[in-house]
Amino acid sequence: MDDVQPLEQALHAARALVLADLAARDVAHADVVSLVEDAVTHRRWWVEQWPEGTEYVAGLVAQDVQDALLERYGRWPLCPVCDGGDPHALDVEPELGADPHWVCGKAGVVVAPVGALGGGAAGGLGG
Question: Edge to edge, what strands does the sheet with 101-104 contain?
Answer without folding.
Answer: 91-93, 101-104, 109-113
